[in-house]
Amino acid sequence: MIPVTFVVGTGRSGSTALSQILNLHPEILSLNELLASLGPWALPETPLTGEEFWKILVSPNLIYSKLLRSGIVPPEFLYPRRPGRYTAETGIPALSLMVLPHLTDDPDGLLDELEPQVTKWPSHFVGQHYQDLFGLLAVRFGRRVAVERSGYSLQWVPLLRKEFPQATFVHQFRYGPDCALSMSRHPGYRAMALLHDVLERAGVSSPMELTPQHLEKLPPEMTELLFSERFDPSLILDRQVPVARFGDMWSQWITEGVEYLAELPDDVRSALVYEDLVRDPRAELVRLAEFIGVDPAPEWLEAGAALLDSGRTGTALLLPPEQLSALRDSCAPGLRALSSP
Q1: Where in the sequence of the chain do the CATH 3.40.50 domains occur?
Q2: CATH number listed for the domain at residues 4-175+253-315
Q3: What is the pLDDT of residues 80-89, one digit of tens each?
Q4: If you ran DSSP here, which 8-state letter would residue 77 be given?
């Protein structure tokens, strides 16, 4: 069984660059945004046949499909940048959106190659199916260990620990105000902030809980965002959202995630601080490689260091003083959680 490591975090913490670095290592199968691609349906708790598991892998992510149909293409969406036979209108298989184009220039061909093998698998719990998939891809690309990295993934830690009891975890994080500011400029996180506002206004925790009575009280553009096939992108891109709102989101996710990670044994978890990584990339990549269980070859360290941009640190300091003060206040709970023993 191939060793598996999950890099978890809030996103906007340099994790996309980390996937690019990991993908350069000849021993690492870099599974870029697998959990994020598949969404909340990724880890069902009942056994699945191979065909049922394949359906999870290829069913288009409804939220991402709506973004694409509305003309919003976050930078993490790799498939639309090298388009194949799928489009936003046909629906892009979840596995093809960010995972397969990270591994190959022919994601359609790799998808076709995987289908007849995966669909023949017998019934298993989903963790075993993923292990088999990782092993299949590792053989295909000549890799020895698997590292899954999704930006918005701290929430998955308890389920991942249950389904992958032998896995190790790396918590990648960034200084809260800088991370929240980056979120405020990203269309995906702006959409999440708007959705949170809708749910808070309705007094529910999930879109599934919204009733017709709730919807009657929402502005028309909010129902358009939730239930239409497409929406006016300006609703997300041009909407004024205080940057401190993203600090609140970051603090909530970090506080919850730190609690989840604290439940793991010390020897299966590690941390990777973005600011440390860009300040001393070779030392941090050596430490990461040793934790994952691969050789930190000098040529890999050199190539990885070249992908990092130290100019992305301290960006929040450029905000007007009043905004910076509010942002720091909103990030304070998350920063306290990170500094707790």
Answers
A1: 4-175+253-315
A2: 3.40.50
A3: 988 899 999 9
A4: -
